[in-house]
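Re: Re: ligand-bound prediction request (bumping)

Still looking for help on this. To restate: I need the protein modeled with iron/sulfur cluster bound, output as structure tokens. Inputs repeated here so nobody has to scroll up.
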Amino acid sequence: MRHSTFFVKSYGCQMNVYDSKKIISILENKGLKKNKDLENADLVVFNTCNIRDKAAHKLYSDIGRLNKYKKEKTIAVVGCVAQAENSEMFNKNKSIDIVLGPQSYHLLPQMIDDLKKNPKQINTEFIVNEKFDYLTEQKRKQGVSSYITIQEGCDKFCSFCVVPYTRGPEYSRPLKSLINEINILTDKGAKEIVLLGQNVNAYNTSYNGRKINIADLIEEISNNKKINRIRYTTSHPTNMSDDLINLHSTNKKLMPFLHLPVQSGSSNILRKMNRKYDTDYYLKIIERLKTVNPKIEISSDFIIGYPGETDSDFKKTLNLVDEIKFTQSYSFIYSPRPGTKSAVEKDETSLQIKKERLTILQERLKEIQFEFNKSFCGKSTDVLIENQSVSNPEYFFGRTPFMQSVYIKSQKMNPGEVKNVNISTCNHKNLYASY
Ligand code: SF4
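Reply:
Sorry for the wait, this slipped through. Here it is.
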């Protein structure tokens, strides 16, 4: 089959969206052209996420819809569902041609060629360093805000999570290859570097016999004069070292906004989740962060309706939300993932109650986010301009130090500049200004 066009569909987490950009770049380097719609592409790549049950269901229903075009298409499933389900995927849907784990997607071009020899291709090995070496050599278009994976995998084994099984143990990329890649990104115009990892603050390597943690890495990156802003995500509370906390006071390029998932406000549920901290520990981390930098704002993830969550546990989550006042958050109803410890736990709470709890939590989070955004109205704030709106070219888009989206009405702004703008109005999601 001829492969001249492709389409990539992403399911799920930020890591997954980032991986999709890399896959697009790999395929463009092979000479394929990105197609706007899935129906007309020769190669369809489903980049999967296994964090929530719905994503896997959605994947199979999407593939099912493509069955009628099967003769004209190659279907590749890459990412965490591919890793977890492995060759079983070929039995579940005969249309699938390629199954590729998240550590091997740099092998995709070769596997496409090898389809001529063998119509079913599979690779689910953990070969992370080879993948990163390959990707660093790729020529990529990058934006003002560029993501770079510094760490993959997880050794924490939270009882609800598949990542330790699908992404393997924690692996940190060598310092030198990261600095090389960041230099390429800044030469192409990147002004903000977002360090990415499943457990990004567990970053741990050595260079010339010296141990390097994420705080050392951030210090090293901030020496690059072209960089204005540095962020890191996603962090685990137990890896918030003193070095890293103190850096939020001393390093002016490190933004005063931290995504630090707490998952629940109940220590009882945190213990069941095997999160390895309780609410007191989490609150102390926040207190230390606020002591070194009173301006810092926090965002979090919440899992609602974890097996055994009582009304009292849920109220503790609401109390924590009121105490910390998270300015952005992601919240979901718990869904059991096959192979995890929590999947076999008794769950007696009805879906109806879980939905009600989620609505209450989300309403409260929304109110707090709106209050926070309103506190910017009538004041000026620094915005890193990222791009001009395609649908509405009168507007430019950028972000504040606290990751708020800002739409600025202006005749001309240059992506990459930091502009101090007056915020005129807002809603819970966005701020608006003119310049
Ligand atoms: S820390 Fe827990 S939730 Fe995060 S990736 Fe590891 S096991 Fe999953």
